[in-house]
Design goal:
YaeB-like fold; 106 residues; single chain; alpha+beta
Amino acid sequence: MNPEPGFDLHPGAAQDITEIWEYIADDNVPAARRFRIEIFDAITGLVPFPHQGHKRPDLTSRPLRFQPVRDYLIAYAPEEKPLLVIAVLHGRRNPHAIAVILEQRQ
């Protein structure tokens, strides 16, 4: 899937974004649309400077970086061309659960 030039979404990341949209849209569809745009804008902003995110060795030994967007974390592979978004997960999720999700998304 390539929604924007310069990055790809792992199928799990695409599902994450859909689930976030659905959760917010249950209460407010325009807010869900705005937040989805905010997520894609943040990802697009990573493309020219992929190492701006931070590492999280507590979550994965893979060379992934993490960029916050509100209460969510975008997990991505900065060395991939195009940039590969692995996951978009709530930052308050149990760190062990995040680590398991990232491990499953090879």
